[in-house]
Amino acid sequence: MRTPVALTIAGSDSSGGAGIQADLKTFAALGVYGASAITALTAQNTRGVTGIHAVPAEFVTAQIDAVFSDLDVGAVKIGMVAQAPSIDAIAAALSRWAPRHVVLDPVMVATSGDRLLASDAVKALRTRLIPLASVITPNLPEAAALLDAPVAANQAEIESQGRRLLALGCRAVLIKGGHGEGAESVDYLVDADNAIALAAPRLATENTHGTGCSLSSAVAAGLARGEALEQAVRNAKAWISAAIGAADRFSVGHGHGPIHHFQKFY
Question: Could you give the CA distance from residue 107 to residue 109 in angstroms, rounded to a whole number?
Answer without folding.
Answer: 6
